[in-house]
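In the current project phase, we have settled on a layout for protein records. A sample record is reproduced below.
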Amino acid sequence: MLRRFPDLWLFLLVAFGLSWLFALPIWLTDASSSTPVFLAMGVAIMFTPTLGVLAVRLRGRRLGDVATGREWAVRTGLSAGGSRGRTLALVALAWFGIPVLVVVATALSAALGLLSVDLREFSLFRENLAAAAGGPPPMEAGVLMAVQVASMVLIAPVINSVAAFGEEWGWRGWLLPRLMPLGTWRALLVSGVIWGLWHFPLTLRGYNYPELGAWAAPMFIVFCVAFGALLGWLRLYSGSVWPAVVGHGSLNASAGLMLLVGDAADPPVFAVAGITGLVGSALLAVVSALLFKYRPVERSVPAAVA
């Protein structure tokens, strides 16, 4: 398929090539995930799929694509989609529904005996606060806990959606519709695997699953396929990329819930428990399958071709 569509090669070359280029400071300095270098480069990497989309657009213009900016925006999901009301409803569903799934995944992990929680003392949260502050936290842990949860749901999704757009315009806005000739489920699978492979500059260093080391890279592909299916449904059902952007931002804002409710005496294993672990991936896969079954999407989604 890539031989037939050179725009796919260009998009992937830019997205993957620049992600590795931007990750070089992390590899050369051996920076940990808590350092400013890692955080800055991580945000920069999130915009490489958008740069891939812009590269495809530039190539198309040079080859004579006469589509207006508005037409191309519709093709890549920047518009409100077929129904503004539906898209706004899905934005709200993504904003507040994703944290609900995070809570359900955390509760399931605890119920299955895969996560030890401390809802009385919040010992893991207290321990992380003390480590970050270099001493006792500046205020009562319970107050900080309430502030953190409120931020996870109300504020952080908006902030995180800015960087999430850098990914979603590429993966769900441009790439997923481009792959739809493969069939819906194949397109979701292929785009999810590509999304997971693109994370390798960070996940090969154990990002998201520090207990796995480099094995975090293939493990994260499982999550990307499952969560990518849910984001894909949001994109395809609405005809707009914005619900997927907000859903991605909401997930990034709330995925750390286990760090708030975990037990310091028995820290969570991120590869298994929580929304990004096997429990969460299974939950996301089931929810995605139900959505596609009971709210099927149109196959004829316009693709932005060069």
